[in-house]
Every structure is written in C-alpha cells, then in structure tokens.
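Recap quiz, item 2
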Amino acid sequence: MGSTGMAGLAHGFSVALEWHNILWCFAGVMIGNLVGVLPGMGVLSAISILLPLTFAIPTVPAMLMLAGIYYGAQYGGAICSILLNLPCHPPHAVTCLDGYPMTRQGRGGVALGITMVAAICGAAFGILQMIFMAPFIARVAFSFGAPEICTLMLLGLLAGATLAKGSPLKGVAMTMLGLLLGIVGTDINTGVERFMFGQVELSDGVELVALSLGLFGIAEFLKSVNHTAPVNAAHARLSMADMWPSRAELRQAAFPILRGTLVGSLCSLIPGTGPTIASFVAYATEKKLSRHPERFGHGAIAGVASPEASTHSAVQGDFIPTMSLGIPGDAVMALLLGALIIHGVTPGPRLIVEHPDIFWGLIASFWIGNIMLVVLNVPLIGLWVRLLTVPYRLLYPTALFFICIGVFAARNQLFDVAMTLGLGVFGYVLVKLRFEPAPILLGFVLGPRLEENFRRAVLISRGSLEIFISRPISAVFVSLCVVLVAGQIYARLRRSSGVVSAAG
Amino acid sequence: MDEKRRDHYAGALMALLGAGAMVQGSQYGIGSMTRMGSGFFPVALGAGMVVMGVLIAASASKAPPPPDLLHGPQTPPDWRGWGCIIAAVLLFIGLAQYAGLLPAIFACVFVAAIGDRRAKLRQSLALATGVTVFGLLVFAYGLQVQIPILGAM
C-alpha cells in the first residue's frame, strides 16, 4: 500500500503542479484567507458563491480552489481572533481567549507567528493522515452493499446532528428537514414529482447553492445587520519582524502543538465533530494538563498554539470521510460533496480509484496551498490588518449582490434567487428558535442517496428491515447509532438530575 | 421571548412541517414494504419530524443555555435592516427580469446599504456605483451571465 500511496502522491503533484491548477489553488487560498479575515463573512457563503462559477472549469481545478477556500480561511480566521478579539470564524473563537490578551500585551505578532507554526504542523499531520487512511478506509468500504451504505449514512447523519453544537434533539430535527428538502423534485425511481407545488423550476430539486446561501448568507445578514460592533484595531499594528517567536516561546509551544494536532486528528475522524469542536477540546485539554492553568486567559502561548494546531489538523482530516466514503462530516464538506456531484463525479469509496486526479491532486494541492499560505501571510499581514477594518456596512451589500448573481448563475433561474430569499428568512427564524442550520445541508446532500440505498436494501430483502441487522457490518453501524443515541439520553438524564459539569 | 416558550414554538414548527410532509407525501403513494411507493420516505420523515417536534416542546426548560462564544447575544428586532435586505433581493429579481442587470445591481446594493443605520447617502451611492461597474465587468463581460445589461429578459 505504501508504494501505491507514493505513486499516487507523485501523480497528485504532477496534477497539482500544472500551472493552471496552481493558479486556481492560489486563487482559492487567497479568497479563503480574505474571507477568514473579513468579519461577518463565512466559508460556506464564499464556497457557495464561487461554486456556480466553477461549472465553466474542469473538476480538478474547481475542487482545488473550493477546498483552498476552506483551509485558507483558517489562516485568516486566526488573525481576526488574535488581533481584534472577534470570533468571526467559529473554529478560532477559542483562540480569542489567549490570543487577544497577547495582542494587548504587545505580543500579537508572536501569537500570529506561533499560529503559523501550529498551522503548518497541524495541517501536515492532517494531510499525512489522509494519505494513509483514506485509501485504506475506501478499500474496506468497497464491499459495502446498499444496507451497509444506508446504515453508515444514518450513523454519519446522526453523529452530525447530535455531536455538533446545540441541542441534539434540534439537530436531529434539522437533519430530517434537510432530508425532506432533498426529496423535492422528480423521484428518480418512479418519476413522480414530489413537493413541487406546481413549480416547474423545482423539477431538478432545490438548488444546493440557493439552500446554502439562504441559510448561511442571507440569514446571517438578517442576524448581523445593525448589530456589529465597530472594529477596534487599536492594538492591531504590527510588522513582519514582530512575528518571529523566540526560542523559549517556541519551546513553550512545542508540546501544546503536538497535543493539539492529535486532538484535531481524532476529532476529524468522528463525523460531526469538525474543527470547531476540535479547537475547544484542545483548549480544555491543554488547560487541564497545564501546570499553570491560571495563566490561561491572560495570554498563555499554549492557549493559542494548541487549539490552532488542532483546528488545522481537523480541517485537513475532515476530508477523509468525505473523500473515502462520500459521507461529509460537516456543512462545508457537504457543500464540497455537492460540488463533486454537480461536476458529475459520484462520491463514495470508488472515488480514489476512479478519479485519482481529484483525490491525489487535492492532497498535493494541500501541501502547496498550506506552504503558499504561510509564505504569503508573513509579508501580507499588514494588508490583512487593514482589511480587518473594512466596516460591515460596506461588506454586506456587496456580498448580497454576489449571492443574487451567484444563485442565478447556478441554473439561470431568477426563481432560485427568490427561493434563496425565502430560505434565508426561514433560516433566520430557525436561528432565532435556537436551531443550528448546519445539519440541514448534511441531510440535503445525503438525502437522495440515503433514500435510494434504503429502497434498494429493502427490495433485496423483500420488504424486511431485518437485513440491516442480519448483515454483520451493517449491524455494527446500527449498534453504533444505538450507542450514540443512548449516550445522548444518558448525558441528558445526568444533566437534569443536577450534576452540572463545568466544561472548558 | 423566554427559553421555554421559544422551545414550544420550535417544537410546534417542526411538528407542523412534519405533519405537512406526511399529508402531502401520502398523496404520492406509500406502497408497502415490498413495493415501496414514492410517498414512503417523505411520510416516514414527516412522522419523524412530528416526533422530534413533540420531544423538543416536551423537553423545553426555563433555564437559558450556557452562554458560549459561538452564539452572540439575542438581538432586538431590526425592521429597517430586515426590510432593506429583503427589498434589495426582491428588487434584484424584479429589475433583472424587466429592466436589466445594470439597474438590478445598483438597486440591490444601494437598498441593502441604506439598511444600515450608520449609512450615509453619498457613501451608499458610491458603493452601489462601484459594485455595479465591477459586477458588469466581471459578470456581464467576463462571465457572460444570461441577463441583458439593459432591457427585459
């Protein structure tokens, strides 16, 4: 396996180093970095807006760019947290706790320097993990039939709904809503038109871009308009020379980076626990292990290094289940999976074998992209800091136009723009009722495949649901689902009986 | 809105959506386990959502969830901002259909911009003009988006 991995990687570099692919990767990481820096802009919106524009280019550069936005934004998000104390990018919210105190002490540059070191270590480990694990997982999954795929998806959806932030009950409800939205349109098995309410425009289903830009674009603007504090960049002045950490500081950061990386890589393997959870777990672990827990919150280097390393390793690891099983762990991955489907690629265990260009090209581009990001961020830090101060009132009207034109361009239908608006208002209501909209996207992307495989499995068994527990692998997935649900019920009962555990 | 009532509304909304999906889905033919109809999956999901809705409402508690870094504070309604954002998108749709891309972009950006209470007229006009020029260059000339610059679709 090692030799095929090496050959694959070599092939990947030959793909990723083609000049136009390098260019798209560069565009992706730059846009990502920019989006990460700008307060109030999200990765999901950026990927959704650019998704329709990638229809015109081949699949490989499209994926390199869209993926680049995701990990590029992680570099920008850290800048925002450390220099401005703005948790504008969820995985980096926890970095504010110690990053901003460091900035106030005049050590913001060092915090960013440590972040870069942590980022490259975390990312490198995450990519290595993907190189070795994804082909292995995919090979195991080759033998999966309809019942296994079905229960595996169920497990993925259940984990995505219950382990992410927010109430697990509401998460499951959101997943079901997403599955229902995925049903809209012509039934591929029978040709029956479902939930179309007489709208011809819906016969191909709800447009993925419309759904994600409604839920994460327009709903976000409705939430933030007139509620953003003016940006305080008083402490954000720094130069390149400030960014080099001293040897002692690097020594302090070394073990936290290592531990953070491991936490991140573990979290990335569990669906539903993406980079955000990873960073919180890493911070909590570090604080618990530290000999000076009282220093946390007052500018401890470990409090920046560990969560940052864990975020970056989780971000890269996030691609493993998506690329090897076709099961996304969070909303961003659901969107990238949707992009693959739109480009005519069937996600699943066969992806690595059938589209080595995409899989290995993507891995090689991760190396290239991460190195580009570090190299770029050091000299460009001044530019990013200036961008941080662009007021929200100029940003969101521009972004709103990009959303309108992006959704239109996806299918050349103004109907979809109206749909986006409707979904945006609905999404805002959901947020107000304390629902987390992310699992909707997961359900939406997996819905059609889940239904298809469910129907096929029950057809094989002549109508008996027993097939899901009589086949051993499928039974394992079902029992994991049961464990997951039982664990949630247990946690809930414990909480309501008065035992309050102080987390973080 | 107190936390308990919020969860009651949340549960009711889910149950309502689930019930709607069941009623609508049952018209597509549920079939049997051996010959599943197009309505089976929607009805099953709808039923699931009704159950979740009831559970959400039943487990509603007064205690506010622990504050964390991810959820901002609950904000008061902002009708000016909401109205302008919604109007901006509607204007884009209407103008793109009947008047062309140029007025659509300009109106969309300008109306959205004046939704912010700190917006100044001149700054908003400048922003709208800038984005219109950029948008026309990139989308009309560069990417050949299927909306005429001026005139109905």
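Residues 2-230+241-494 of chain A form one domain.
Chain A touches chain B through 67 residues (CB under 8 Å).
End of item.
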